[in-house]
Amino acid sequence: MRQRGVTQVVLAGIATSAGVESTARSAYDLGYNVTLVVDAMTDRDADAHRHSVEKIFPRLGERATTDEVLTLLKEALLGRATPSQWDPCAAPPF
Asked: Which fold has domain 2-84?
């Protein structure tokens, strides 16, 4: 991914507390900017899901909704999103 210039990963999926969380940790550890689409993930254990979303994910990246991510992608395609909107060090666009 680095060779292709990828700096941002956007994550969603099932098994929030296992698959999504471990992927987010790996991406963060590898230096990627991580966006977690919290309304596009689920877990069999509601408490584990809630813990990941509320306690773990804020330390690994920024949280967003599907609508927020799609809006930014659309704006980027139309040339209206600025690079700072995807920079985790800048003020979060979400």
From this structure: Rossmann fold (3.40.50)
Closest CA to 66 of 42, 90, 49, 47: 42
Residues listed for the chain: 94
What is the reported pTM?
0.79
Q: Cα separation of 38 and 52, whole Å?
A: 10
- For the chain, residues with pLDDT lower than 50 are 88-94
Count how many Cα atoms sit within 13 Å of the Cα of residue 59 in the half-sphere of its side chain. 9
Q: Rounded to 5 degrees, what angle do the CA atoms 28, 81, 26 make?
A: 10
At 75 the pLDDT is 85
Residue 36 in contact with residue 9, Cβ under 8 Å? no
State residue 93's pLDDT score: 45
Q: What is the rounded distance in angstroms from the CA atom of residue 60 to the CA atom of residue 79? A: 28
Answer yes or no: are the C-beta atoms of 87 and 58 closer than 8 Å.
no
Question: What does DSSP assign to residue 88?
Answer: T
